Amino acid sequence: MDQDTACIPLGHIQTYFDLRQSLIMKAEWISQKSQLVEKDPHELLRDIIGLDENEFYRKAGIDYRPGDSDRFISTRQCLALIDQAVSALSMPYLGLVMGNLMTVSHHGMAGMAAVTQETLSECLSVVSRFCAELFPPLEMNIRIAGKEGSLVISENVSLAPYTEFFFELNTVSFYNIFLHLVGDSVQPDYVEFSYPEPAWGHIYRRYFRCPVFFNRAETRIVGDAGLADYELPLANKLMAMSAEKTLFENIPTRAARLLPLRIRRLLMRYYGAFPSLENAASELGMSGRTLRRKLAEGGTSYQQELDAVREKLSKQYFLRGGQSVTELALMLGYTDSSAFAKAFRRWTGISPTEFQERHLGPAAQQAPTEAMPSSG
C-alpha cells in the first residue's frame, strides 16, 4: 500500500469537510470552539464548508458527482484536499481547529458505536478497528504498560506534508471525547507528538489542558491504565451493534482486503519468529508465487512489508525502555546486531543509539508545552 492505493472511503472523508452535520449554527459557539477571533465568526464557518464542492474534488483528481460516496480515493488525493483547505484558510494549524469542532456526533455512526461500548478500553478498541477500515493510512492502537495506558497513532503510509494535520485532528478530537466520557476532572497525563514542534506549536496550548511534548518516538495520548475499565455513561450494547451495522451499510470499506495490511497484521502476530514468504502465503490461502505477484502488482514486496513491521517493532522496543540492540536484533530475526543496526539506519537515517538518545535521553526530556485552561 502506498500513497496511490485507493483505499479511503470517500464517504468518510466527506465528514471532514462537511461540518454542517454537527455544527451549532451560532457565531459565538464557532468562535469559542475554534479558539479563533474573527470579526464575523460566520465567515470562518463559510470558509470551512464553503469551498465549491465540484472544484474542490476536481483539483484533487477526483471525478466527483453529488451523492457519489460509494467509491474510494487515494492518500495522495486526500492530501490534495487537505492542501486546498489549508491554503484557502491560510491556516497551517487547521488540524487543531477541525479536531476541536469534531464532536462525538460529527463522527456519526462510528462515534455512536464507540461511545456506547461498556468500557473505555472497549471504546478505544472500536476506534482502532474503525480507523483501520475507514482510514487505512493511519493506525491506532491501545497500549497498556504497567500503570500507563495510551492511545497510539501512527502512519501506515506517509501523510507528509500534512502529517501534523492528521495527528492534530485526531488527538484533539479524541482528547475532547475522552473528557466528554470520563468528565473534565480527569485529564490525560500528557500528549506526545512524533514530530518536532511546528512553528504554530504555541497554539497547542489552546486545545490541551495537560502537558504536550514534541519530537517523541510516537504520537499518543497517555493516561492512567486504571481508566481502561471505566464504565461509560452511554453504554448500550444493542445501540452499539446497531450503529456499527448502519455505519458499514452506508460506507463501503476495503481495508480488510488490502493485501499489504493483511501481511503486516499477520507478521505482527509472529513477533520474534516471522514466517517465510511461503508460510505466510499458506496462512493467507494462496501460493508463494501468487503472494509475490500480488504484492508486486501493489508496488511492494514481502521483504518491504517485513521491514516496515521490524521498524515499527524496534521503535516500540526502545520506547518501552528496551536498551539492548543485540537482544532486539535476535528478537527481530537478525543473525547479529550489526546487520540490524545497518537496517535500522536504512529505515530511519540514524543509528539505534542515536534514536535512543534523541527520543529517550536528556534531549528528549524537554519542558512540555504549557497547557492553558480551555474555554471550550
UniProtKB/TrEMBL annotation:
- Which InterPro entries does this chain map to? AraC-type_N, Homeodomain-like_sf, HTH_AraC, Tscrpt_reg_AraC-type_HTH
Q: Domain named HTH araC/xylS-type: which ranges?
A: 261-358
User: Is Cell wall biogenesis/degradation among the key words of this record?
Assistant: no
**A single GO molecular function, which one?**
DNA-binding transcription factor activity
Q: Which Pfam families match?
A: Arabinose_bd (PF12625), HTH_18 (PF12833)
| Superkingdom per UniProt | Bacteria
Q: Can you list the GO cellular component terms from the UniProt entry?
A: cytosol
- Keyword Amino-acid biosynthesis carried by entry: no
Name the UniProt key words of this record, in alphabetical order: DNA-binding, Transcription, Transcription regulation
Family matches, as SMART domains? HTH_ARAC
Q: PANTHER family in the record, alphabetically?
A: HTH-TYPE TRANSCRIPTIONAL REGULATOR GADX, HTH-TYPE TRANSCRIPTIONAL REGULATOR VQSM
This one is known as AraC family transcriptional regulator
